[in-house]
Amino acid sequence: MRLFVVALAFFALSCSNGGNYQLSTGEGGKLYRLNKSSGEVCLIEGYTITKLRQPSTTEESRQVERKLLQPNDWGSETLPTSPQITLTLKTVWRDGNLYYQLFAYPYDPVLKDARESLLASSKGFTLQLMDSTGFVLLTVLISLTDMANIVDSNGNPTEMQGKGNVPCTSDTYLGINSSSATWRL
After folding, report:
1. Beta partners for 163?
2. For residues 33 and 16, what is the distance between their CA atoms, to the nearest angstrom?
3. Burial zone of 148 (CB within 10 Å; 0-12 exposed, 13-18 middle, 19+ buried)
4. Same domain flag for 173 and 117
5. Are residues 105 and 48 in the same domain?
6. How far is residue 59 from each of residues 9, 54, 96, measured CA to CA in Å?
7. Residue 81 exposed, middle or buried by CB count within 10 Å (0-12, 13-18, 19+)
8. Are residues 43 and 79 located together in one domain of the fold?
9. For 35-82, how does the pLDDT look when each residue is reduced to its tens digit (9 = 90+)?
10. DSSP 3-state assignment of 56?
11. Which 3 state secondary structure label does DSSP give 172?
């Protein structure tokens, strides 16, 4: 018992305002310890200290932030339609969402007829965003009715553009390595 009191006194002194640690009480009376210099957060329950968050280095944080804020151009993919439709995809991550821009071109009878169909809301493109091993991390359905026509200087449609966003964690976005698209007729 005496050893416990000495250990508790030593712990309290090391956690005082003058040390590296700050103690705070959270929801439900839980006790947390913050390492002021490293940012490490621990939960203290009885005799157990559990690390909740390991701090990352400042440079690592900057690299992750740069990657998240940098728009990603996924290139073009030509679909096996007749005539062929080419899709170009760009994405960026902001505030828990993946934002996308999808371009479909050329605007030909295939796109025109599908867009003007009575079932246009069920027609469109399915985007699959995958990790480096081919597992699908996120699927995005884009209806033709949610896409806008892009016109040339004469007012003739040349392509279609879909813009939008879907919920996506930063970890999921950082795990995306490739994309694939299919046409929903």
Report:
1. 101
2. 11
3. exposed
4. yes
5. no
6. 37, 15, 22
7. middle
8. no
9. 776 677 888 888 888 887 665 566 777 777 778 889 999 999 998 877
10. coil
11. helix
What pLDDT is attached to residue 83? 80
**Tokens at 137, concatenated:** 């991390």
What 3-state DSSP class applies to 147? strand
pLDDT tens per residue, range 107-116: 888 888 888 8
96-to-16, 68, 146, 168, 180 alpha-carbon distances in Å: 37, 11, 22, 5, 22
Taking the CA atoms of 58, 60, 64 and 69 in sequence, report the sign of the dihedral they define.
positive
Mean pLDDT of 93-107: 93
Rounded Cα distance, 8 and 159, in Å: 70
Q: Is residue 102 part of a domain?
A: yes
Is residue 6 domain-resident? no
Write the CB contacts of 131 (distance below 8 Å, at least 6 apart in sequence): 137, 175, 176, 177
The tokens describing 78, both together, are 């030509």
Contacts of 80 (CB under 8 A, 6+ apart): none
Is-contact 89 102, C-beta < 8 A? Answer: yes
Whether 108 and 19 map to the same domain: the answer is: no
Query: Distance between CA atoms of 88 and 103, rounded to whole angstroms?
Result: 5
Q: 69 in helix, strand or coil?
A: helix
The token pair at 109 is: 């009878």
pTM flag (> 0.70): no
What are the distances in angstroms from CA 24 to CA 5, 13, 44, 113, 161?
A: 21, 15, 10, 63, 51
Residues 90 and 177 grouped into a single domain: yes
